[in-house]
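<discrete_fold_record>
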Amino acid sequence: MHETTRNTLALGALVVTLLAPAASHAADAVQASAQMARPGLSQMIPAIKADDYKDPDLWARIRSGYAIPDVNTSLVDKHIQWYAARPDYLSRTSARASLYLYHVVQELEKRGMPTELALLPVIESAFNPQALSTANAAGIWQFVPGTGRDFNLKQNMFKDERRGVLASTDAALTYLQRLYTMFGDWQLALAAYNWGEGNVQKAIATNRARGKPTDFESLSELMPAETRNYVPKLQAIKNIVANPAQYGVTLPLIDNQPYFTMVDKTSDIDVAIAAQLAEMSVDEFKALNPQFKKPVITGDQTKILLPKENAEKFHLNLAQWGHALSTWTVHKITSAKESITTLASKFHTTPDVIRQANNIPAQMRLKTGSTILVPKTSATADVGDIADSVIDNAAVNLEADRGGKRGNQAAGSQRYKSVAQVKSRSPRHHSNK
């Protein structure tokens, strides 16, 4: 799990801005008053736009867009104390958030959504894209496989878009908007995001039948502990961001400008080569591109994310690159006689390389029909990109090695299948990082 220590990075000349709602209302009132006194004045004063307001601090931009009614309960106080007492935790979370937070805030503003929703990944995953819950919820927004597929997040052997910042943020905000439309209340929408809309609907029906209110606080006694604490936790983070000094917290500066830019790629490329061309470490590259599960990035329409200055280096170095961009291809297991040892010999590599590239644990063997990633050889050097049909359908199916314990065979075969084959047991997720 990568933790970047770069909280800020000035990239490019674009300064992204914000018009605080309060300032907007005040400006409207002043303008209206002036128009009454001098009817022709409105033609002389240009309309105030978001770009006319600049703040270098992204936290300030988030504060100015708060729009969800506050919760004031003992649970909120409890969680404020918990977070405030852990400055190292907040520092690590902020460092990870610094890569993604500008994009999330920008997308929220485009949709006219409350900006405190940008803080939701703090309680979901601590902004760790590699976070994985016991219910198999993944990424900063913690989607389980089934809900991820409902929102078109691709999950196959090569990538898991639940972990990628662009696709998962779009899916999460679309889901939250749908829940808000369903319940007409952001607190209930958040409860449904955590617990599932069906459960919230049942709780509402129960309270209505009892003649009780159906707001979040009134329904909380019907909720599991995680959901009961969910909105108070977000409120706690919201309060800390609103006034960190009040709670003895220092938030690291996060620049109010894009951290990354999108780069198109038109052919398969190794993760290590992409990082080399961008003049980044592999860990830095993976932090911005966590959705890629293999050492090769497939798909001709796939985009990668890079800091602007590294994107420029990437293009310059790519133009001068005189070698193959991908050193990997695929192989389908057609016989039970194909062992990892024989495959390593065939493809001039080691069993450890085969196991690591395909996440094959020790004491497990490949089942016939599996498709695995293997290094290219001189005989396969001219093989083209991995086909889309393979990307969409490939799976690694395992069973206990004959030299291992037979009792693990069923569990091993199921556990190590492609993520896309795992069924969710939860309406969305049950995680709390």
Notes: Residues 219 and 334 are 56 Å apart (CA to CA). The chain has 18 helices and eight strands.
